[in-house]
Hints:
CATH topology of the largest domain: endopeptidase fold (from Nostoc punctiforme)
Strand order of the largest sheet: 5-10-6-7-8-9
Largest sheet: 6 strands, antiparallel
CATH class of the largest domain: Alpha Beta
Strand content: 5-15%
Number of strands: 10
Distance between the termini: 40 Å
Order of helices and strands: HHHHEEHHHHHHHHHHHEEHHEEEEEHE
Amino acid sequence: MIVETSLAKLLAAGGGLISSVVLIAGLSGGAKYAAASTDAAALSRAVCSYGSHEGSGTERPLAFGLTTEQLANAQTIVDEATSRGLPRRAVEIALATALQESHLDNSAVGDHGKAFGMFQQHPDSGWGTRSQVTTPGYAARAFYERLVKVRGWEAMPLTKAAAIVQRPKEDLRREYAKHKPLAQKLAAALSKPATAKAPATGFRNVGLSPAQQEEARISIKAAAGLGIPRQAVVADVISVLANQMPGVDPAEIKRRAEHAVITIAGQLCADLSVALNGISGDVLAGTSRGAIAVQAALRMRGIPYSWGGGGPSGPSYGIGRGARTSGFDCSGLTEYAWAKAGARIGGDTSAQWNAGAHIPRKAIQPGDLIFFAYNPSNPATIHHVGIAIDSTRMVHAPFTGSTVRVQTWAGIPEREGAFIGVVRPP
């Protein structure tokens, strides 16, 4: 191999994964990895090939027969409805529509090159520019904006509501009807905080502590970026397990090794695929402190909101209405993310507002803290904070009943009206 890899203390007798995976030690591959990491899509494909049982380089279908990218688009549809306080009925209509129009494929182009994105929206019909309608969050918002203007949409058949929004001059109700059962299942699964993370990853926890999972993910990502075949990594796992488990059937050791690599790679694959919804490779693979903070926050997507929960060590039980939920509130998530980047910013919005330089909005960079207040002229009324991904989106823990998620904030009236400023930790 071009680099040295090893796994230490991997599986206990009970089969639980208990330590880190794939420690990359070779420097000769550094330039190759650096080049690969700047292409987020290529890096995602490489990691996802590790998570495939066949290792063929194609993305493994996950829950509901959908790929991680399709599930990511479905989650965006759910999240946009949640942020607007729309009922599940709206989510079901939107999901059925996107399933019919593109099967949740954001790269789809139809109608002789006139319709784009997962909803196949037409720029020449006032849906927005091609760039906008191929941004999943924007496309979902545009759909909902038209849906809520349909009189009586809440009570009318799903298929009729979808047809009115999408094709008012065509009767495609039978086509939308085909997707109603799956749309309902997706809406139910992705709307539940307790299960939101499972559909996004398709894998159960394999027994790693948060710190060990961090090491494992970084190492798998490096190995995939270097082009190391998955079987070479698995072979290293097998050798470690054979030493730790003398007398155990070699076939069982191989099975455990495959499971360990596939599971961790699958989790990382899902995260990268979700993050690829327009997030640049510089953010996904960057090494600046801001990029590291964003990456840490993105890895917490799906973790429940918990009032007073979370801190430098990760999610925790909160206080008050968060006392029975292990997760993050908004400032707990930002404190955790910046702790991963090596900065202490305090555990509440008041401390974080004073934890760095105040930056003009036009100069926002990944990792900057974006603050919102009841009175945008008075910092004492700050009530929310998120971590900037770029100038329009943030990753944040929104409210009780939600989960950590990526959402657009720029151009959203309720967010724009509350925006108070940006802080860049040192």
